[in-house]
Prior knowledge:
By secondary structure, the protein is mainly α. It is 64% helix and 10% strand. It has one domain: Orthogonal Bundle (Arc Repressor Mutant, subunit A), CATH 1.10.10. A three-stranded antiparallel beta sheet has the order 1-3-2. Helix 1 packs across helix 2. It is elongated and about 50 Å long. InterPro entries: Metal_resp_DNA-bind_regulator, Tscrpt_reg_PadR_N, WH-like_DNA-bd_sf, WH_DNA-bd_sf. This is Helix-turn-helix transcriptional regulator. Pfam families: PadR (PF03551).
Amino acid sequence: MLVLASLAAGAKHGHAMLDDIEQMCGSRLGPGTLYGAIVRLEKQGWIEALPMEDRRRPYRLTTAGRAAFVAKMSTLRRFVAAGEQRLGIA
């Protein structure tokens, strides 16, 4: 979901995604974790590789990836609302 969130703002190469994810959530993914996620997301058709730029491969969100991200965000909102209600902070 972090990769989808990063690419929702536009195409990025791996290092830029790592920086963006760190800025969003305050912790840095390892390169192996990121590239493992990239492989899985490409296989699902949720992201796609673009032509190389200066020895870096940018990726972008596909239409299916955007729809999946929207659905995951909706699920996350419901989860947060349920958690807040159970904690009595809603």
